[in-house]
Amino acid sequence: MRVREPATISGEFDVAIGDFGVPLYGATLLGEVVYMSDNVKGCTRFTKPLTGKQGDLPVVALVHRGDCYFVEKAYNAQQAGAKAILIVDNVDESLLTMSNPEERPEIARLKNDITIATALVQKATGQSLVNELSKEGAAAVVVELDWTESVDNPDDKVEWTLWTSSNDGCGRACDRQGSFKRSFQSTAVDFEKHGFTSFEPHFMHRKCDIAGSRHCDDECINHGRYCAFDSITDAYKDRFKPRLVVIENKRQLCVAKLAADKHEPWVWWQFAAGYSERCTMANGKFGDNACAESEARAVNLDPSAVTSCMGDSDADMEHPLLQANMEAQGSQWNMHSPLKVLLLPTVTINSNQYRGRLEKLDVMRALCAGFSEASEPEACLAGSLQTDDCSAGTDRCWREGSLNACVDTFRGHQCKCPTGFKGDGETCQDVDECAEGTSGCDQSCTNTHGGWECSCREGFEMFGGHSQPSLCLPKDMCAGHENAGCEMNCISKNGTAKCSCPMVGLELNPADHRSCLNINECDNNNAGCEQVCQDLDPRKTNLLFTCKCRSGYAIDPNNHSKCIKQDQFLASLGISDYVDNLSNSIGWTGVVGVVVAAAILTLGIGFMAYHFRMRYHAQQQIKDIMKQYMPLDGNGMDEETLLFKQRLPTMSSSNDAELSGQIGTAGPSTDV
């Protein structure tokens, strides 16, 4: 506690949080102290609302210890409008924890109705406050109650325990525990799954004074080693023995162990919540193996493994889980234990005992106080748990338009420059990530206020890039663009489309770099042809060029580039003398028929060696020769009749090859 005003008594003082009330874990409360001289102990109801001199601050009631229970004083102050109560000790002693009078259940139940913070102050500290407030014309006394460090918060993971019981037949205390397990289950499971917390359930037991007695037999297992800590009300004690509570506690310890072995510690919460709802004394299923096994299967645990872990409750031996639990509990049997758990339920957070109600929001607030600053889960920043200092505008952090350096935390706030800025949080400047080389842009970077933009060259597609690293990958410039305008092949490389003409005899048009031009092979030394070179377009003929001969000459069958006289050509076919004889005996018509028949035979064989196009050129050459021997027009025969009407004598295959070669082409080209 810090006394802020007046300056004459200002300073910091220790206080002790009570076992009842709602501490504002992780927060502070600034309030005005009000002392009522007509009700200094607060044991009766205040006759009028408690109000301060300043009027705009919450009221912190100040009362003396004595004459009634602590919880009664807190209840009366709360009813009068106080937001917190300070109880002044009546003896000079060290601070102690104000507990609830469990021996007076009608008063103890007030604990559940108290929603204000409670604290005990030492006699000297409290008396200085009373003296200041008792002065004539006294100024307002303003104090700040600080719970920000009431729970240790060393790191980003909270370790906590719940000391509880499976008993649901002990009255309101058991009802509250069962209700808490069911209401807190989803939060606990979420925190465990995300690694925010490390939770362990524990169960309170005691030893039996006289092992083997009837009393111990009813309340204990394992020959009096582990006995029930809490009782069973009259409504259920005839049907359920307290030892059954110990057995079910052991079952839940086994569930917790098996769940932890599976690296799923949150399963205990699911089992415990389900058991408290469906396996109750009210429905007669508490301690029922079938009900317990059904709950185990519901959370994917093997019931037989749970039973094996539990062992024999009548065995004269220690149970490892119960024994470890007993040692962790601490008590008069273990005076060296760092923590002595004496009450049910008890919550510990980072080895600090939780003070307050066993309610979802109250426990959640205490858990959130156990995280180091700014490491708390998002759930801890809910408005029901804390005040957003940044939204309240009470911070001194840098702001510019919609940007600000205020980061809300569970305990308050931090000034931290947003991404893209640098500074101490109260002043921030833009960072030029492009100049510093920290942008991660693949190609181009443009700095923006608080960030940067990446971009890619034309022909590239960007991934990422808006205030984050980018990757530029080349687009397929040939796909979806009508082959990028290329007549033949299109190759996409580094974001650029390049055309090519892979067919032999073609070249890329230098004018547009897209179309293909025919290469005139005849321009290069007449392509080797002795007389005439005729250029061909390979796209139409599949040929580059063909060599031809002038009138009176024919292609040399042995060298397609050379020309020989026609009579030499016929002689090379072995039909020259035969033609002369036929011309003398049957006239020119017969000669023509014989020659044409020989040509037809030769062309047929040539077709088997080459393809159809060569036949056309061979026919043309023979036709030209035959025209010199005899005109074909007006003789009553068409050219096809002349070609197929007569049959020449059979020629050797070597002559077939010679005839096919006389076409004199450069041969067909192929696509490359």
From TrEMBL:
Record carries keyword Protease: no
GO molecular function, one term: calcium ion binding
InterPro entries in the cross-refs: EGF (IPR000742), EGF-like_Ca-bd_dom (IPR001881), Growth_fac_rcpt_cys_sf (IPR009030), NOTCH1_EGF-like (IPR049883), PA_dom_sf (IPR046450), PA_domain (IPR003137), VSR_TRX (IPR056858)
Domain EGF-like intervals: 415-428
Entry membrane topology: Single-pass type I membrane protein
Keyword Chaperone in record: no
Region annotation Disordered: where it falls in the sequence: 652-672
Keywords: Calcium, Cytoplasmic vesicle, Disulfide bond, EGF-like domain, Glycoprotein, Membrane, Repeat, Signal, Transmembrane, Transmembrane helix
A cellular component annotation (GO) from this entry: Golgi membrane
Superkingdom of origin: Eukaryota
Cell compartments where the protein resides: Cytoplasmic vesicle, Clathrin-coated vesicle membrane; Golgi apparatus membrane; Prevacuolar compartment membrane
Pfam families xrefs: EGF_CA, PA, VSR_TRX
Positions of transmembrane segments: 586-610
Protein name: EGF-like domain-containing protein
Phylogenetic placement of the source organism: Eukaryota, Viridiplantae, Chlorophyta, core chlorophytes, Trebouxiophyceae
